[in-house]
Amino acid sequence: MLYFIQQDAVTQAAQDAAEVSEEKTLSIFDLLLSGGIAGQIIIFVLFVLLFAAVYIYFERLFAIKSASQVDKNFMHQIKDSVLNGNIESAKIRCAQSDNPVARLTEKGISRIGSPLEDINTAIENAGRLEVYKLEKNVSILATIAGAAPMIGFLGTVIGMVIAFHELATSSGQAQMGLLAEGIYTAMTTTVAGLIVGIIAYIGYNHLVVKTDKVVHQMEATAVDFLDLLNEPA
């Protein structure tokens, strides 16, 4: 008889543990929405920042990829046209290529006949404008990378303040389970902020690398064009 009672107690304890485990299971979506009004506002702001970061990343990535596509024979064709004195043909060839390299070359061709220093200055000014176009909105991505974790920390601090306020107003009688739940709910904003910040940071650095490659391509083309003008007639 005692054996069966012990077995029933063990079974009941196992069932209670399973119920507690099931009660503690919480989906990420429910966890994000269980942080109160302040936590939900922070999470919404972070989702908006995440959407903006992803949109800017892919928009700039496609733009930079398009800018980096230059025909390998482009400079050879420009060189042949310039050496043969067919300046209009060189301008038409540049106009047919919608990329920064072609626009820089066209700017240099339009200054042929001017002093070499003036041509170099015109190309540099056009190059700065092209770099500005390539880096459009990339600074926003860097701002999101820095601001998102801080916004997440702000949500956590607000949640912690609310949790300890509940503890203080209950004269120390608040259940530890409720206090712990409030704390880990508040911590979700930090997790969300770090995730958004990491995504934006990686995207920003990837775009910087891609942009640098296009800039180096532009510099190499400018050097080739100036060398072409320095060649003896």
Automatic annotation (TrEMBL):
Keywords: Cell membrane, Membrane, Protein transport, Transmembrane, Transmembrane helix, Transport. Residues 97-219 form the MotA/TolQ/ExbB proton channel domain. The keyword Transmembrane helix applies. Its main location: membrane. It is a multi-pass membrane protein. InterPro entries: ExbB/TolQ_transport (IPR050790), MotA_ExbB_proton_chnl (IPR002898). It is found in: Cell membrane; Membrane. One of its GO terms (biological process) is protein import. It comes from the Bacteria. GO terms for cellular component: plasma membrane. The keyword Secreted does not apply. The chain crosses the membrane at residues 37-58, 138-163, 183-204. Pfam families: MotA_ExbB (PF01618). Belongs to the exbB/tolQ family. PANTHER family: PROTEIN TOLQ, TOLQ-RELATED. This is MotA/TolQ/ExbB proton channel family protein. It comes from Zunongwangia profunda.
